[in-house]
Amino acid sequence: MLSTSAIALLAIGIIVVLITPGPTNTLLAAAGLRQGVRRSLPLIAAELAGYLLSISVWGHFLAQAAHALPWLPSLLRVAAGVYIAYLAVDMWRAAVALPDSTQRASGMRTLFVATLLNPKGLLFAGTIFPAVAFAHLPAYATAMLMFACLLVPIALAWIAFGAALGSGKLTWLNPVKMQRGASIVLGVFSLSLAWAALH
Hints:
transmembrane, cell membrane, about 200 residues, LeuE-type, globular, mainly alpha
């Protein structure tokens, strides 16, 4: 089992990484902006599923095979960067027609894949989660339960932020400019992934 200090450090690490802007949070905010809180709630399940799968795979991979394939993490960062760049371009284009468009916001599959490819999964598995979580089932269950309990309110906050933008409650922010700004965040994030992978 995890010690009290390990649980505290895990909780702090999870919160800090999850609240950081990135591709998944940007897509959650964009969904809240375009379709409101209630219709965006299922996306939280897609995010949770994407992270649980990503963290589990990375954790077990890093625990057993990282020394045999030192090039794989760089390759995966490049692949994630390309996908996130695609999302950035798509979001920029969607923002052009945002005020009078009936185009659907990001769906569950898009959010799941973006989360699955999100480098935060590798960060969680490689540095935030203790190594014992991938060696013993009770520690793994505890860590994942804590992760799920912290992810839900943070994801909801990102959706609510986007919805507040869309409802006009934050009148000092223009929703189209906000969505384009979010696409720029995704683009910069994509470039930073490529830079880190190639250097």
